[in-house]
Here is the input.
Amino acid sequence: MSTPFYVSPEQLMKDRADFARKGIARGRSVVAVQYADGVLFATENPSQALHKVSEIYDRIAFAAVGRYNEFENLRIAGVRLADMRGYAYDRRDVTGRGLANAYAQTLGTIFSSGGEKPYEVEIFVAEIGESSDEDQIYRLTYDGQVADEHGYAVMGGASDVVGGYLQERFTSGMTLEAALRLAVSALGHSESEDRTIAGSALEVAVLDRTRVQPRKFIRLSPARLETLLAAPAAPDSDEPPVAPPA
Here is the structure.
């Protein structure tokens, strides 16, 4: 009987992490930016049917990068968990922190299990409060780690380059138009040259606390995106100029 090939636990976990990171890096970045009235999500996604940003519950949104079938399974599980908790107890008992913890347990279990490959996904779970100080953005990695982000967050693709661009230009209390321009400029930024992304190639959604409806999630249409991007910037604004999409 042959002796099975031995791999140390440290090397096994490193190989699984490298595998997941490479799969996530092949996707395009997703940006989350806090503005005065909520949280904006933006990504380059020409598909009108396969969404990276979706609604989970009244004040909670979900965004992901990586393999679509894997993060879609996680999104559906989150919707079911939120619906069950809201129905059994109260709608106020459904929180972004609770969903982030549930996702962290699921991703951590899958990553540490030797029976299946790790999920090639990263996730944002965002929840808005009554004011911007109560807004929350959680970033979950493929191995179940949770980070509490503030102001802005980036995942997938060239996240280091996009994150550096946002760090230099982000200011708190921005308007929706300013936050959208900043997010689109960051997505088009690269180390070689910047490019302009057309509104038809963008997927943008917001959690808007000014809505009177209990559900605060809104998906922005390409027509509205072009209108917002073409609007002139405020005279005293420090936001970078963005050419209107062709």
User: Anything to note?
Assistant: The two ends are 67 Å apart (CA to CA).
